Every structure is written in structure tokens, then in C-alpha cells.
């Protein structure tokens, strides 16, 4: 679980990302969908979705002490309504890590990397609750 240092690391780097949320979200979805030949198809929606996911992650940062309960309805949405394969949560988490490392190389120390990785793993678990 997240210790005090993890929590402050996670809060600090996402606080830095927040003012650039549109750009961060776009970078994440761009790397996520890079295998698409025609990225322009539905591009506006794809861009918008990056922002949506990042807003969800920022909300999760604020609620990191009880992710399972706070993300319950979001888990239900992804499991039953959207039917997103939970394997995708891992991929998008990896992209979030990459984008943070690219945007904030000085802040993205090995220490912060571990903390953000732990945090995103917990977000994924919380989002996967309703799949079981
Ligand atoms: Zn998701 C939606 C979050 C991942 C797909 N999402 C959504 C939302 C949110 C989110 C917040 C909105 C909701 C409402 O509206 O209510 N996601 C999220 C997060 C994550 C995610 C946080 C991670 C981390 N998603 C994801 C993935 C996918 C998805 C991976 C796929 C692949 N989502 C989705 C969809 C939707 C969503 C499809 C819907 C959209 C619209 O409607 O627009």
C-alpha cells in the first residue's frame, strides 16, 4: 500500500501535471492509439477521452485513501456499460508513467516512479473491482 512518501510524491507530480491536463491527456491517448493508422478518424473524441481519463486520475489522487469505494461507480461503468477489457488499464497506466517522465524529467526520479506506479496499480485494482 501507499506510504506517506508515496502519497506526497503522487500528489506533487500530479499537481504539476494539472495545469497542463489537456496536453497530458492528449499525449496519453496519442501513445495509446499510436497503432491506429488513421488517427484522425474520431480524433476529436480520442483527444477528449484523454482529458476525461486524466480528470478521473486527478480525482483518484484526491481520494487515494479510499480508492475502492470512491471508484466503485466508475468501475461499474467500465465493467458493465463500456465493457472495457481491464487489460487496457495496465496499458494506459504505463502510458501515464511515460508521459509524466517525458514532461517532467527532473521530477520523475526513480523514487517518484515507484510511488506513481504503486498508485496507478491501486487505481487499476479499484477500477477492476466490479469485474470480479
Ligand atoms: Zn475510461 C469514460 C476514467 C481507462 C474507455 N473513463 C470514462 C469516464 C471517466 C473515466 C472519469 C467518464 C465517466 C462519466 O462520464 O461518468 N478511464 C478512466 C480512468 C482510467 C480509464 C481513470 C484509467 C486510469 N477508459 C479507460 C480505458 C478505456 C476506457 C483503458 C478503453 C480502452 N472510458 C472509456 C470509454 C468511456 C470512458 C469508452 C466513455 C466515453 C464517453 O462516453 O465519452
UniProtKB/TrEMBL annotation:
Family matches, as Gene3D superfamilies: Globins
PROSITE patterns registered for this protein in UniProt: GLOBIN
Keyword vocabulary terms for this entry: Heme, Iron, Metal-binding, Oxygen transport, Transport
One GO term (biological process): hydrogen peroxide catabolic process
GO cellular component, one term: haptoglobin-hemoglobin complex
Lineage: superkingdom: Eukaryota
Globin domain mapped to chain residues: 1-132
PANTHER family membership: EMBRYONIC ALPHA GLOBIN E1-RELATED, HEMOGLOBIN FAMILY MEMBER
Protein name from the UniProt record: Hemoglobin alpha embryonic-3
Species this protein is from: Electrophorus electricus
Lineage of the organism: Eukaryota, Metazoa, Chordata, Craniata, Vertebrata
Amino acid at each position: 500500500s501507499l506510504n506517506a512518501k508515496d502519497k506526497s510524491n503522487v500528489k506533487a507530480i500530479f499537481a504539476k501535471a494539472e495545469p497542463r491536463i489537456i496536453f497530458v491527456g492528449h499525449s496519453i491517448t496519442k501513445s495509446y492509439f499510436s497503432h491506429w493508422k488513421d488517427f484522425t478518424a474520431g480524433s476529436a473524441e480520442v483527444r477528449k477521452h484523454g482529458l476525461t481519463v486524466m480528470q478521473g486520475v486527478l480525482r483518484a489522487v484526491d481520494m487515494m485513501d479510499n480508492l475502492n469505494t470512491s471508484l466503485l461507480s466508475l468501475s461499474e461503468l467500465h465493467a458493465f456499460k463500456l465493457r472495457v477489457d481491464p487489460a487496457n488499464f495496465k496499458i494506459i497506466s504505463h502510458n501515464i508513467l511515460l508521459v509524466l517522465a517525458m514532461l517532467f524529467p527532473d521530477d520523475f526520479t526513480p523514487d517518484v516512479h515507484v510511488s506513481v506506479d504503486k498508485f496507478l496499480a491501486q487505481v487499476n485494482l479499484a477500477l477492476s473491482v466490479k469485474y470480479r
